[in-house]
Amino acid sequence: MPELRKDPLNDRWVIIAPERADRPNSFLRARADTDVANCPFCPGNEALTTSELYAVRPANSPINSPGWTLRAIPNRYPALRTEIPISRTADGLYDRMGGTGAHEVIIETPEHNGGLAKMDAPQIAQVLRAWQVRMLDLSRDERLAYAQIFQNVGTPAGATLAHPHSQLIALPLVPREIAQELTAARAHFGAKSRCLLCDLVAQELTAKERLVHENESWVALAPFASQSPFEVHLHPKTHRPSFEKLDGSELGALAACLRTVLRKLAIALEGPAMNLVLMTLPLREPAHPFYHLRIVLKPTLTQPGGFEWGTGFCINPTSPEDAARFLRQTEA
Amino acid sequence: MPELRKDPLNDRWVIIAPERADRPNSFLRARADTDVANCPFCPGNEALTTSELYAVRPANSPINSPGWTLRAIPNRYPALRTEIPISRTADGLYDRMGGTGAHEVIIETPEHNGGLAKMDAPQIAQVLRAWQVRMLDLSRDERLAYAQIFQNVGTPAGATLAHPHSQLIALPLVPREIAQELTAARAHFGAKSRCLLCDLVAQELTAKERLVHENESWVALAPFASQSPFEVHLHPKTHRPSFEKLDGSELGALAACLRTVLRKLAIALEGPAMNLVLMTLPLREPAHPFYHLRIVLKPTLTQPGGFEWGTGFCINPTSPEDAARFLRQTEA
Predict the structure, then answer these.
(1) How many Å lie between the alpha carbon of B120 and the closest alpha carbon of chain A?
(2) Which of A14, A15, A307 sits opposite B169 (nearest CB)?
(3) Does B30 touch chain A (CB under 8 A)?
(4) Which residues in chain A touch residue B312, judged by CB atoms under 8 angstroms apart?
(5) pLDDT tens readout for residues A156-177
(6) Angle B80-B81-B87 (CA atoms, 0-180°, nearest 5)?
(7) Mutate to test the interface with B, among A12, A13, A16 (most CBs of B within 10 A)
(8) Domain boundaries, chain A
(9) What is the pLDDT of residues A194-209, one digit of tens each?
(10) Thinking of the domain A177-297+304-329, which architecture would CATH place it in?
């Protein structure tokens, strides 16, 4: 059974999930699976997956049958499980929690060799909509505090299956990184009565040197303190705290911005391995004036080493100004 | 020129070091160099390196000549530089610092295919002694706040050169991870008047289920909240705050413990890629009663993915109890 454990030296919880070791290719030396015939995420192989939670499919087509354009399913090797009751126990110095949560997979397309960078904007919007649907459904479970949406593309980025998919892990607590961002944003708002991220966007839209792309409502930036080369963050131009509350036209504009940026990255870096991470408010949180959502894209061009593990700092050999200039000049 | 930049959303500084992109093999697709003839760290190729800062070599042998058993040199592609003056500036919301610091390489052996796991204890002690010598020398520069010693072994762990070496990066500030540990340890001491890490060692020596190895003065543990499979931490059995203040016999016992653990890991995991990280007090800090040094070994068996980047949490498929049992049973 998965379990959450907290390190007494820092605010880092770890999910100990022994079932995950049963996955094919769970350790590093393996490559992402590229065998289409045996791919559990390909159409016709629905019997190889858990039963779908949500799908985009023709009206009246049976659940778990082919013909879909998107499916959301429980992860077969879940890091956390909804069936586990909340439990919190001490073990001397240590803290444990039962592995209450959810771990889902969003199969983004029937195309084994597809992916967000190859989709048109309406197809991408359909994926974003699926994230919203699953977050809204999980937010009804009051034990769950945060839903982390992410995508690992390519083996160096942590993917074990090649078929395009994103994942959702819902946690019984607000994770350390989001908690730290909320603390910093709350302090900024306390001092200035302005959203830290809105201030950041305004400064970047004036400076322009780290601007990658913009449309009517979204802006893509190489962050000032980029942790790794060619990191890009997509921000709303106006204050939008929670991802799951974006309306259809906001999602459409985000999809268009995301498409352009992903295509620029694919061309500039020749189809890099990459992580996508959605940073947003905790579930059921009211729309605060002090923090807003963003999407983080992190091409996997460098590896964290001992320095990064020890310090929590990163060494980035590419300045965000250079990365942004290069991406602006890349036609997509 | 390298520069430090702080993300306004968290306490994470990033070193933007464009010179590092000039390195051979600086991006991920490259493999660690294994060409002995052109290895800058092999004996006879001393002219390919910067001039040595410290070496173990026969009496009266000239500096930068062959015959050495260990050399410490400035990194040719430094993340930080001592020549850069301290400067701190604001840029709107953002914070910048000049890239003041030091980045050194400790070539641990003349053997291209050697490494700590293949050395005997006195050879390992010689490497540990070199870390102390360089930390003590750099601690005379009062601009430097923390010296991070680390080792990246193998391409998946971030190594770009195969020849066994460790690195030292001295920073003008105390890094986030150490600062958080010091805060937690100070709070524990404030409440209980005991060192958090001494309490942890005492609890583990009683529980025994995460014990990997011990000798008269050191203990190797799989941490309760291990971030990754087969992580092992080496702690002193009695309170020893600063690495650079360990005496010769303490270093010798640490070397013996480290040798056994590295050999167990090499056998159990078939020569894994790995990071070694030294966690210790900031430079020139008095020997506090609340925190003590440890050595962290992190085999690179999994990759951080989007979930880890987004949350700061890790998913570990191997319980530390299983890892410790397996390593205890591995003869080394």
Answers:
(1) 23
(2) A307
(3) no
(4) 11-12, 175-177, 180
(5) 999 989 999 999 999 999 999 9
(6) 85
(7) A16
(8) 3-176, 177-297+304-329
(9) 999 999 999 999 999 9
(10) 2-Layer Sandwich (3.30)
Q: Does the distance separating the beta carbons of B320 and A21 come in below 8 Å?
A: no
A187 contacts: CB under 8 Å, gap ≥ 6: none
pLDDT of residue A10: 83
Residues of B in contact with A20 (CB under 8 A): 315, 317
A269-319 tens-digit pLDDT: 999 999 999 999 999 999 899 999 999 999 999 889 999 999 999 999 999
Least Cα separation, residue A174 to chain B (angstroms): 8
Is the pLDDT score of B22 beyond 90?
A: no
Provide the CATH topology of domain A3-176: HIT family, subunit A (3.30.428)
Distance between CA atoms of residues B195 and B189, nearest Å: 6
Between A45-59, A92-106, B19-33, B273-287, the lowest mean confidence (pLDDT) is in: B19-33
Of B14, B176, B275, the CB nearest to A225: B14
* DSSP code string of A248-305: HHHHHHHHHHHHHHHHHHHHHTTS--EEEEEE-PPTT----SS---EEEEEE--S---
Q: Could you tell me the maximum CA-CA distance found in chain A, to the nearest angstrom?
A: 58
- The ipTM assigned to this model is 0.93
- The CATH architecture that domain B177-329 belongs to is 2-Layer Sandwich (3.30)
On the question of a common fold for B3-176 and B177-329, the answer reads yes
Which residues, in sequence order, are bridge partners of residue A278? A295
Q: B315 contacts in A (CB within 8 Å)?
A: 14-15, 17, 20, 79
pLDDT value at position A28?
45
Report pTM: 0.94
User: Do you know the residue count of chain B?
Assistant: 332
